[in-house]
Each structure stands twice: as C-alpha cells, then as structure tokens.
Amino acid sequence: MNQIEKGFVYLRRRMVFSAAHRMFHPEVDDAVFGKCANLHGHNYVVEVVVRGRVHPQTGFVVDLKKLKDIMEEKIMSQLDHKNIDTDVPYFKNIVQSAENICIFIWQQLEGHIPDGAELFCVRLHETENNLVEYYG
Amino acid sequence: MNQIEKGFVYLRRRMVFSAAHRMFHPEVDDAVFGKCANLHGHNYVVEVVVRGRVHPQTGFVVDLKKLKDIMEEKIMSQLDHKNIDTDVPYFKNIVQSAENICIFIWQQLEGHIPDGAELFCVRLHETENNLVEYYG
Amino acid sequence: MNQIEKGFVYLRRRMVFSAAHRMFHPEVDDAVFGKCANLHGHNYVVEVVVRGRVHPQTGFVVDLKKLKDIMEEKIMSQLDHKNIDTDVPYFKNIVQSAENICIFIWQQLEGHIPDGAELFCVRLHETENNLVEYYG
Amino acid sequence: MNQIEKGFVYLRRRMVFSAAHRMFHPEVDDAVFGKCANLHGHNYVVEVVVRGRVHPQTGFVVDLKKLKDIMEEKIMSQLDHKNIDTDVPYFKNIVQSAENICIFIWQQLEGHIPDGAELFCVRLHETENNLVEYYG
Amino acid sequence: MNQIEKGFVYLRRRMVFSAAHRMFHPEVDDAVFGKCANLHGHNYVVEVVVRGRVHPQTGFVVDLKKLKDIMEEKIMSQLDHKNIDTDVPYFKNIVQSAENICIFIWQQLEGHIPDGAELFCVRLHETENNLVEYYG
Amino acid sequence: MNQIEKGFVYLRRRMVFSAAHRMFHPEVDDAVFGKCANLHGHNYVVEVVVRGRVHPQTGFVVDLKKLKDIMEEKIMSQLDHKNIDTDVPYFKNIVQSAENICIFIWQQLEGHIPDGAELFCVRLHETENNLVEYYG
C-alpha cells in the first residue's frame, strides 16, 4: 500500500543533473514529438521521497549521508552530464520521456534505501513548468 | 477513489495568469475580508495534475501539447488579464476566494483531459505564501 | 484516516523562521551527525496544510488571519530567532533533527486549527535540498 | 553620479504587494496595450537598494527596522491590496506601466532613507519574466 | 559608455531555452573540461536588459511585444530545443561555454532592439548556481 | 575603478552555507539589534562575481573548478556549519551583521581569484528578503 500513513515522516532529498535527450521511437512519427524530436537538454531536478519512523536516538528517518551516496551512485553517475540518447543503455528501446526517466530512477533506487526506510515517490522536474511523479 | 495508486505516473503542468479580484458577499461584512475586500490582483500560479499509465510508444501519460491547449482554452482564456469581479460570470454569486477559483478551474477541466488520462488535482498559488489544492 | 478525500480543499500557509540548532544525543557519537554536530543555523521554511470544506459565504476553508495568528503563536514565537539547543525546552532530551522539529510543530498546532478545519500536514524545509513532511 | 563606488555596501530589501492595474492613456489606442488594457492584477515584487558605509558599532548600513517602516509607509500603504486605477491619485494622468510604478516608488522613497544611507535603485518585478529598474 | 545613467529605466525580459552542448576545442585536452566534455544539456535562462527613457504616453521603455518577438527570432529559434554542437553554425569553431553563448546572444540582438531603446546586458544562467553576464 | 567595462564577461558562482550568528557589540544596547541579539541562524546564499576576458581556447573567464575550490577553502570551510559567534576569530570584535560577513568574504577571496580574473562583487543573501553586496 502506498497511501499516506500515520506516524511516518517523509523525507525529500533534491538533486539536479544536466543531460541531453531527444524523443524518438521507431514506430512513432517525429511530428508527434514536435521540437522534442531534436536532441536538446535540461537541468533535471530530481526529488526522492522516502518514508519511515524516526529513530529515537539519531532523530533520523534515514541517514542523509547514506541517502546522498545512493543517489550519487544510482542517479547522478548514470545521468549527470550524459547524453541519455547514447550513454544510458536502459533507453536503447525506451522513449526518453520525463515519465520514463522518472520510472528508471525509481527502478534504480528500489531496494537500495538505507536504514529500513521505504522508497515512497520519485519526482522529476524537466522544466520549471513540467514535472512528473511516480509512486512505484 | 482519489488516492495514490500503483503504476500511475502523475504529470503536473504549471501556468501563470494575472487577474484582479476582490472578496465580496452580500451577506458578509467587509471587515471579515479585511484588505482583500478592496479590488486588488495577483499573479496566480496554477498547477494541473493528471495521472495515467505511460503509453508504450510515445512514453507519455498525456500529450503535453494537447494538455496545454486545454489549459489555454479552459483556464487562461477565462482568467488571464481579467477582472474576475466583472469578467467571469461564474463568480457573479460566488466569492472570489482562492478556494473557489481552484474549484472553478477543476470544473472547467473535468471531462476534458485528453488521451484517457484522469484529472487528479488542481493547485492554485495566490501568493508565494498561500496555496490551495482541490482533488474533486 | 488521513488520505485524500473528495470535496475537501487543502490550504497551505508558508512561513520562514531563522534558528540555530545542532545535532546531539548523549548516546550517539558526534561522528554520526558529521558537521551537523556543530552549532549552526537555517532559514527554516514551514508549510502548514489544513483541509476542510469551503464555507458558502466567506469562500474560506479557514480564516487565513486566524491561521496566521495561530502559526505566529505556536511556531514563530517558539522558534524564530531562537537557539533551539538552549531556548526550546521540548528539545532538552530530543535530537533537534528536521524530523523532530516537524513533529514538534505538528504537536504545537494540533487541536488549534480554527473554523473546524483539520490539520493535515506539516512540511519543513531545512535547506533548499532537504525537506520533511509529517501527517500526524 | 550613480555608479558603483568603493567602500560602500549595498543593501537590498524585498517586499511583495498585490494590486490591480490596467494600461490606459486617453491618446493611445487600447490595441497598443493588448490584453493589458483590461483591468487585471499582479503580485508585484519590489526591491529597494540603498547604499552607505557600515557603521562601526552596529555593523549596519541602515537600521533594517527603520527601512522596513519607511517601505511600509511609502510603498505598501499606497499600493498593497489597491486598485492602482482608482486608488492611487498619482496615476490619474500617468499610465500604470511597471516603468511608471517603479519611478513612483523611487519618488515616494527619495529623501526618506534613514541613517544617512542613499537610495540607489528601485527594482520592480511585475511577473517572474518581466522586471524594471530605476536609479533616479 | 555603459555605466548606470540617470533618468533611464532598465527593463529585463526573461526566457528559458533547452539545449544540448559539450565543451570541446581541438587544441585543448578534454580533461580541462572535465565531465562537461561529454554532450549534456541545460535549461538555460536568458535575461535581456534594455534601457531607455519612458515614453510619455505608452509608459513603456520598449514595447514588450516587439522585444519578445525579437528574442523569439534571435534567441529562441536559434537555440531552443537544439544541439548547439551540431545545429548552431556560430559554434563550429568556438567553444560552447556559457560565456560564449552569452556573447553570441548579445551579437544576435545588437542593433535589433526596438523603439530606440539600447541593449544594456545579456545574462545567461546555465544552472541555478552559475551565471554569466555580458555588457558588450 | 570598479564600474562596468566593455569586453568583460562577469561570472557569478552561487553557494549556500548554514551558520549560527547573533548581533552583539559591547557598546551597543541589545534593543538596537532586536530579536537578532539572540543567537539564531540562516542558510546564507553567497554569490561571488568575477570578471575577465574570455580565453580563446577554453571559452572560460575562469576555470570554474578552480573557483569552486577557492570558494570551498576561503568561504565554506570557514563558515559552513559554524557558529560565527564562537568559531570565526575575525568576528571576535566585529559585529556579525550581513554587511560585515560580506566584507569578510571579500577579504578572504581578494588576491585568490585564479586565471587572472578579477574579483568584482560579493553578494550575500541572509534571507529571501534581505541581501547585501560589496564591491571592495
């Protein structure tokens, strides 16, 4: 179950990565993707939300240092300063939409949240006007 | 049901409109509304959240171009650079609170979200400190 | 129950307070807290979300003036321009993590929301990259 | 002379006011003003920049409390929650453009900066995309 | 001369474009450019500042509609949703640094500011932490 | 001379540090400092502006990596997660105002800007409403 539950604290950590992408699918006409069919790029803002109960001694839901390390390894090293079109094997046959990049990040993180906390949501801002969220 | 469900992606599109409004109700004393009883204005930031499953070929929850067109027609053309007090018939007998403008926007959009996606939430920022959300 | 319900409007009010804090627990090694073991400070951004039905005459979920007064009394007067380490008795034996400050704010507000509205969420931004949320 | 000088510190104070306005001039066709000819409104963000030398004991260029009071009296009480079109006599015969509102604010403040500091710049954001600056 | 002068109003218009780029020069080792040697991308925020005297009837320094049209033609159509590395001839032999993109934008605009206003500054944000400015 | 000159590019790098401070001077009454006389804290945003001519091969005004290293050493290691009141010797006899912290940062950086670029401005945001600037 994925709805808001009593007693949990939700912690959100934000990072920014810069990447090139283009929208392409062999069976879809480029016109569907408009100007996004051309290779371009974004400063993607990613927010990872985890939830758990507060540890009575540390006061933490999760050790932020560990969460940052996981995000560096699973998100930043894969996507930051990359051309998603050629550098990220996952997108070889998957359209590089914000929706799919968000699901990719979820899959990268799932099972790797430290300290017994639970991955709750991945939010990806493509521009200041467009964002997508995924809850698994 | 309106809670967070597995497998969905939530897409949020943001637009800004500038409008004048005042708080007024024939049976309410102006003092209740304080300085908001005087005609003034805002840069309202509206965020429309739709949800759906990702299309396997386009990678989209919804075609953003179509969503933008709907938002232009149903929100911007109604509210941008308007005096809500005199230009929007809906508010003839309804107080022009952020809450009611948010519900108005929901009603404008309901049934018009393209590509089988579902309207999930309308969020309206009146100032950088105040916002309201409505889930239908 | 605390999940999203039909017919409600959610209103979020944002305030900022500046406070000093440090991470400390007598049974936890300072190394666990890293540089946060040293007294430092933040501009904390707090968002209080209440929900309720819109009053047919005022158009309000809650009278914002009353909500602001409650937040001034229960949050700002306790935390703004304070050293949480020495000035806030609640944290005498409780680690001053963002998580615990968020829960403290919830407990301060609970039962004090005016006009029959319900406290729904407290969100606390410690920096532009870290935030926590609590739903009771 | 108004250029950047050595030894000065420049202090910028930001406030936000909400006002209705419209673009109108008896000798100008409404088409010149486009949709801005219709009464609408903004959350105007005003930044006042003063400059001076740092006082050796207080460490201040200007007592911020006094500066805030002047800005409340000279800007906020004149413009916040007002309809500039009808509530501000200065604009009876002057177009309510961002440029002119910025100059109006400068004239309101000139000669009233406390503690021997100098008014250096008034900056007015009409939207997140448009701003004007005036240096006297 | 390019310094701040009395009587002028400075108007700043902001736009955002999304582009891919990489840092490359045939005589410079890739290591100098670090991870920026790899093709990646940004949401570039460009601010164009023009200055002039306020027209007594329109209240404008410059007709914003005309300025937007020039910026669309000279900036957006050249850079938005482009791969600067292959799509913009100017950068065939010029490193695609933020500095050089900023100068490119200046050169694109110079001589094209409408209504007798003067191009004063081009500011380019590459990320939320890095920006460059050019005054000609 | 410190005014805007032709041919230069100005590069601004932004960092954030979290610190505790209080306003105190032995010869000034605490009442002058109001609530700021109490130890509290901020997320200070510092922007360092350097200027120079663009290197024809690298396209840089300054190697950003080197500038970041200098800022880490001269600003962050001195102020981040510190109690300015007790941890920074410079402020033993100097009031910890934003003005003086800004001047301190200038003095820390002066003479250490790499690649022949020139330190032009230090800007320090204490809150989202207050900032100070210093040009030497």
In the CATH hierarchy, what is the architecture of chain A at level 2?
2-Layer Sandwich
Count of helical stretches of chain A: 4
Helix content of chain A: 25-40%
- The secondary-structure class of chain A comes to alpha+beta
Which pair has the most extensive contact?
A-B, 28 and 22 residues
What does this structure look like?
- 6 copies of one chain form a homohexamer.
- Chain A has 136 residues and is α+β, with helices and mostly antiparallel strands.
- Chain A has a single domain, classed as 6-pyruvoyl tetrahydropterin synthase/QueD (Tetrahydropterin Synthase, Chain A, 2-Layer Sandwich).
- Chain A has helices at residues 30-33, 64-79, 84-87, 98-109; strands at 9-21, 40-52, 82-83, 118-125, 130-134.
- In chain A, a hairpin with a 4-residue loop joins strand 4 (118-125) and strand 5 (130-134).
- The longest helix of chain A is centred in the middle third of the chain and has 16 residues, at 64-79.
- The model of chain A has no long low-confidence stretch (mean pLDDT 95).
- At the C-F interface, strand 1, strand 2 and strand 3 of C face strand 1, strand 2 and strand 3 of F.
